Amino acid sequence: MPLTGPGTEIINPNPTVRVKGSEEKIRIKQGGRDPNIILELASGSYEGTNSDFWLLMQRNNHWYYYDSQNNKWRRGQSNYSQGTITDKTTILRPKNTSNLPKGLYNLYFGLDTNMNGSQDPEQYYYDQMKVRIW
After folding, report:
1. Which residue in 15, 54, 70, 120 could disulfide with 112, CB within 3.0 to 4.6 Å?
2. What are the structural domains of the chain?
3. DSSP secondary structure of 22-82
4. Angle subtended at Cα 16 by Cα 13 and Cα 19, rounded to the nearest 5 degrees
5. DSSP-derived secondary structure letter, 101
6. Are strands 50-59 and 88-92 parallel, antiparallel or unpaired?
7. Nearest in space to 86 (alpha carbons), one of 11, 23, 13
8. How far apart are CA 111 and CA 15, in angstroms?
9. pTM here?
10. Residue 115 class from Cβ within 10 Å (0-12 exposed, 13-18 middle, 19+ buried)?
């Protein structure tokens, strides 16, 4: 049976995270200069949707979250902000990235489209990259 009428394509939000210009893997010297973290977001069909925004790092089953109030990494998991999805670029410079324990981290920038302070996997969109602190 042929379909007629207007169609709508839903385009998911597209978050991107970069550190020192890289989207794949970077190295940071422990005790060195803290790098900028660049977060880019293309809103897709979700422009104006209320959301939780997350900036997390994970190493050896230990999680760290970006605390936007103090501009630092903290142990645990928490969203760093809530608000509406819009096309934007944000540059962050957490004060203590290079002071985290040495090792390989997964850095995640994501959002979920249910603004409730919890990660909702069925509505979660993210980008990730590797960060090695040496």
Report:
1. 120
2. 14-109+126-133 (2.60.40)
3. BSSEEEE-TTSPPPPEEEEEE-GGGTT-EEEEEEEEEETTEEEEEETTTTEEEES---SEE
4. 165
5. P
6. unpaired
7. 13
8. 8
9. 0.90
10. middle
Q: How far apart are CA 55 and CA 40, in angstroms?
A: 12
Q: pLDDT digits over 3-49, tens only?
A: 565 667 889 999 999 998 888 899 999 999 999 999 999 999 999 99
Edge-to-edge strands of the sheet including 14-19?
Answer: 14-19, 37-42, 88-92
Q: Which residues contact 78 (CB under 8 A, 6 or more apart)?
A: 65, 67, 117
CB neighbourhood size of 77 (10 A): 13
Residue written as tokens 């040496």?
Answer: 134
Model confidence over 57-82: pLDDT tens digits? 999 999 999 999 999 999 999 999 99
